[in-house]
Task: inverse folding
C-alpha cells in the first residue's frame, strides 16, 4: 500500500519520468536511497508498471485503431492469450455493455491492421469486431496535470 511519499514520487514521475532519483528526492524531501528503495518497491508491486516514450504526432508512423470486440466465451480471460500474441496490440480493457473488450492497436500499415483484424476475426470465440481508426489525438495522459 502506498503512502503520501509514494504518491509524491509517482506525481513527480508523471511530470517527468526521466528526472534523476536525486531530483525526485529533493522534491519529496526524502534521501536518495529512500526514494530508490520506494521506486524499486513500487515497480515490484506493479504500481509502477514501466516507463515509456510517447511520440508526438509528427514522429508517429503507421495507423492506430480501436477494436470493439464481442465474444461468446464464458470469460474474457479465455480470449486474452490470442490478443497477447499480437505485438501491435498495446492495450486491452474489459468494459460493460454490448462490447466485451476494447483493444487499442498500433500497426505500421493499414494492411497490417487489416491482417490483425482478420486474425482476431478467425478466433472461434470472437463473434463481432467493430473497428475505429484513430484520425486525431487531442488529449494524452502525459498532458494532464
Result:
Amino acid at each position: 500500500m502506498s503512502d503520501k511519499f509514494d504518491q509524491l514520487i509517482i506525481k513527480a514521475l508523471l511530470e517527468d519520468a526521466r528526472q534523476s532519483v536525486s531530483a525526485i528526492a529533493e522534491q519529496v524531501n526524502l534521501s536518495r536511497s529512500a526514494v530508490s528503495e520506494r521506486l524499486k518497491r513500487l515497480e515490484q508491486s506493479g504500481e509502477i508498471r514501466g516507463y515509456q516514450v510517447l511520440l508526438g504526432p509528427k514522429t508517429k508512423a503507421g495507423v492506430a485503431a480501436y477494436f470493439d470486440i464481442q465474444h461468446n466465451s464464458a470469460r474474457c480471460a479465455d480470449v486474452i492469450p490470442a490478443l497477447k500474441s499480437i505485438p501491435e496490440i498495446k492495450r486491452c480493457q474489459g468494459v460493460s455493455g454490448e462490447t466485451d473488450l476494447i483493444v487499442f492497436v498500433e500497426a505500421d500499415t493499414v494492411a497490417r491492421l487489416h491482417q490483425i483484424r482478420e486474425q482476431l476475426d478467425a478466433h472461434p470465440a470472437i463473434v463481432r469486431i467493430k473497428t475505429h481508426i484513430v484520425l486525431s489525438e487531442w488529449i494524452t495522459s502525459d498532458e494532464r496535470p
The chain has a mean pLDDT of 88. The longest helix spans residues 32-45. The two ends are 23 Å apart (CA to CA).
